[in-house]
Amino acid sequence: MSYDPHAIETRFQSLWNEAGTAEVTEDPTREKFYCLEMFMYPSGKIHMGHVRNYTIGDVVARYQRMRGKNVLHPMGFDAFGLPAENAAIKGGAHPKAWTEANIGTMKQQLSRMGFLYDWSREVRTCDPEYYRWNQWFFIRMFEKGLCYRAKRTVNWCPDCATVLANEQVENGTCWRCHSLVALKEMEQWFLRITKYVQELLDDLDGLSRWPPEVVAMQRNWIGRSEGAFVDFAAEGSATPIRVFTTRLDTIYGATFLVLAPEHPAAAEVTTPDRKAAVEAFRAKVRAQSTHDRSTSKEKEGVFTGAYADNPFSGERLPIYLANFVLMDYGTGAIMSVPAHDQRDFEFAKAYGLPIRVVVQSGGVVEESMTEAVPADGVMEASGPYTGLPNREASVLMAAKAREEGFGEPTVTFRLKDWGISRQRYWGTPIPMIHCPTCGVVPVPEDQLPVLLPEDVAFTGKGESPLASHQGFLNTPCPKCGGPGRRETDTMDTFVDSSWYFFRYCSPKEESVPFEGSAAKYWTPVDFYIGGIEHATMHLIYCRFFTMVLRDLGLVPFAEPVDRLMCQGMVIKDGAKMSKSLGNLVEPDEMIERYGADAVRINILFLSPPWDQLDWKESGAEGAFRFLNRVYALVEEVATDLKGPAEEPAGDVSPLRRKTHQTIAKVTAELDQRLKINTAIASLMELTNAIQAFLPAYGKTPAERFVLREAVGALAAMLSPFAPHAADAMWEMLGQIGFLVDGPWPRFDAAIAKEDEVTLAVQVNGKVRGQITVPSDADAASVLAAAKDNEKVKAHLEGKNVVKEIVVPGRIVTLVVK
RNA sequence: GCCGAAGUGGCGGAACUGGCAGACGCAGCGGACUCAAAAUCCGCCGUGGGCAACCACUUGGGGGUUCGAGUCCCCCCUUCGGCACCA
Asked: Would residue A611 count as lying in a domain?
């Protein structure tokens, strides 16, 4: 019988299923391992990116399990979201039916890959028993002031007809449909992630097992900036105008103030004669899309006619509005120091405003400046601070501002509160009731979940379908009993995914979001794998949520994930796989052609898990050939291996050494680095070594022992990567049970150790000869052997050896003159 | 512009903390088996020179540290990713 992947795979998949192999329960006597992959959006069918992500996870889960750990390896579906609703608008099925059908297809595809998931723990976020806890968290957060309603300028996607979080705007376009995002004033629900911003930042230092680029992206996204607030008394304004600056030292060089066009004080300070011009400018900016505003770097502004006083110098500074000042960063107002800030410089040049150097970094003269000079230097033209190094002056000036009460040192962040209102149907209803007398009132806990009604019409126009559903809309106020109106917005689906990994611990729990002792046993997640595209979205939100859960007393830690890996993208012919490019590779077709095991091996072997992977069909053929070769080999020797065997004494044979070396190598790789491609390469080497051994195999009990050990270890180590083929081989070898139940083969360092090593001998940095010495030879005898080598001798002729270096097991270097 | 990752044969990639660059595979070439093909097996396979043993060169480019650099340091180039008028 030759290797028939389909027969083997379907047979073992059903055997694993029948045996309930994947199902696990808490067992305090065993060490746990929580292996998690980002759950799936049920878009229709799986793609190669999923296959890669989940194959890596499956390798880790199976390996840890073979090592004897109690491994939680669940899968679920991020089942709420826009595509389901868009499908309904296009005249398709109801979002619920569409979603369920897709889940059915995708689950089957996952099973065909041989992924060992505990499906008894499956979580679907569109299930009322799941999203009721979103609502429960929402209310808890509302009670703790972590959730609030505010009118804000928000990002509005006209195509999706909904609001987007800052994180969901890419280059001024919608992250899903890429239409231009507009700004709109709306009442929105916000989660106060900014309350945790410092902790989110500080904890990054402890995430040593996260990819550094993800940590860097989060740090960048959080955008901590130290500086100071300074208040400028302004004509026409009762309250002073507060600016944020990181360069307080340059305040004597401020020659004007600039407010964001939307700044609330703008209208107030504007003098009557400037009103028309100011209004025209504000209208113009308002009409611009976010995209236009952020891409046009042209500095434009308008004078308000008003002036403010520099609290340090007493100087009167004109107040402008300008497009380059953003309302949602700092205070929405700045002091402009054209000599030391490039944007201010450009604006000053365009509007003929003065430029004054106050930090001298060497030869800077106003008249000849072509750009701003942000460098450090010595203070000049800065009153009492003149002559000081600017950094020192900055500290003194901040202290002075605080003393005098017109400012203070401060820290600002780029991260904003998380707007979670979505004007869509297919999501978690926000559990709030608007009452004309009591205001906004949470739905009482015993009335959760607020169910999403199913009988709605999908027009795709204007408001969410919920807004016109009378049965949903009208409800009595829980406080006064009077007529109330339900909130019709639903939650951002990133709320769903912020805590799903806790739910897996006790998915059927009905009284709390997750059961305490189960969560205590399984969490935090030991190993998490997913795409890097979630670096500043999901991976920040889930950290934030975990901090909230901690403060609610639900978990004892703040960081949900110990080790994170982001798998690289799967591309084809150098380009991202996409339908429009016509370079999609369908996992099902590949399984059909080569079997799931070969697909798994190919995707694992082609590059390290975190690198980009260019899908090569020839690679799948190679993987198939490899499995075929191993299978045929096991088949060939299986009967003989049942004969008498006896552990050899004395010298270790090369095959035996190779076997133990390979176990050591693969074990180390799976325990630590996870450079899975090299682990597979060493299994290929072991296969080659076994094949090389066979022609001289004399069938003595000692030789049989060595061969059996080699073949058994090979089958076992193949199991995480190609589980079906490995189990089939295990069976041929007369073994009972599944490899995933372990044990993982053990190695003996003494056997793995080479007793002789070949060293290169360098003379003046060039390899001149090779010597073979016992691996435990001392430096003196190694040197003697090196100098005795004929080829080396020729290069030592008539020269003096001035330096001798022996690197044990590596190299000998002689330096001669 | 700022931050991050990376540049190694025809290709994917390997090389642990500085120690024989190119493991393993793909493609290619030659051979065996076959009437033939596929599959399979064996051999060759960085570049240049030489019949040869061997010699020289080679990890994006240039400098440096070192007995020794793909690996460490400085400068530059290229590609990819993130952020981007962030005050």
From this structure: no
pLDDT recorded at residue A104: 97
Q: What is the structure's pLDDT at A1?
A: 59
Residue A702 identity: A
Domain presence at residue A646: yes
Of the candidates A571, A586, A607, which is a domain's last residue? A571
- Protein-proximal positions, strand B, CB < 7 A: 3-5, 12-16, 19-21, 23-27, 39-42, 54-56, 67-69, 81-87
Question: Domain check: are A506 and A480 in the same one?
Answer: no
User: Mean pLDDT throughout A562-573?
Assistant: 90
User: How far is the CA of A771 from the CAs of A310, A774, A793, A799, A803, in angstroms?
Assistant: 80, 10, 12, 21, 19
Is A613 within a domain? no
Q: How many angstroms separate the CA of A100 from the C1' of B80? A: 37
Q: Which residues of A472-490 are buried (b: 16+ CB within 10 A; e: fewer)?
A: beebebeeeeeebbbbbbb
CA of A618 to C1' of B28 (A): 14
CATH number of A276's domain: 3.90.740.10
| Å: A537 CA to B23 C1' | 39
- In terms of residue numbers, what domain contains A373? 225-412
Distance A668 CA to B68 C1' (A): 28
**Entry pTM:** 0.94
3-class secondary structure for A410-441?
EEECCCCCEECEECCCCCCECCEEEECCCEEE
For the stretch A67-112, pLDDT in tens is 999 999 999 999 999 889 888 888 778 999 999 999 999 999 999 9
**CA–C1' span, A666 to B16, in Å?**
13
Nucleotide in closest CA–C1' contact with A412:
B86
A170 and A59 in a common domain: no
**A207 in helix, strand or coil?**
coil
Q: What is the pLDDT averaged over residues A381-385?
A: 95
Å from A405 (CA) to B86 (C1')? 26
Residue A241 and residue A318 share a domain = yes
Please check whether residue A538 lies inside any domain of the structure. Answer: yes
The answer to whether residues A486 and A522 belong to one domain is no
- Per the model's pLDDT, the better-predicted residue between A126 and A811 turns out to be A126
**H-state helical runs in A352-413:** 390-404
| Average pLDDT over every residue of A342-364 | 92
Q: How many domains does chain A have?
A: 5
- Going by the DSSP 8-state scheme, the letter that residue A776 receives in this structure is T
Q: How confident is the model at residue A155 (pLDDT cuts 50, 70, 90)?
A: confident
CA atoms of A385 and A363, how far apart (whole Å):
19
Q: What is the CATH number of the domain that holds A182?
A: 3.40.50.620
Whether the ipTM is more than 0.90: the answer is yes
Q: Which residue is nearest to nucleotide B85 (CA to C1')?
A: A324
Closest residue, by C-alpha, to the C1' of B1: A342
Tell which of A366, A395, A412 closes a domain.
Answer: A412
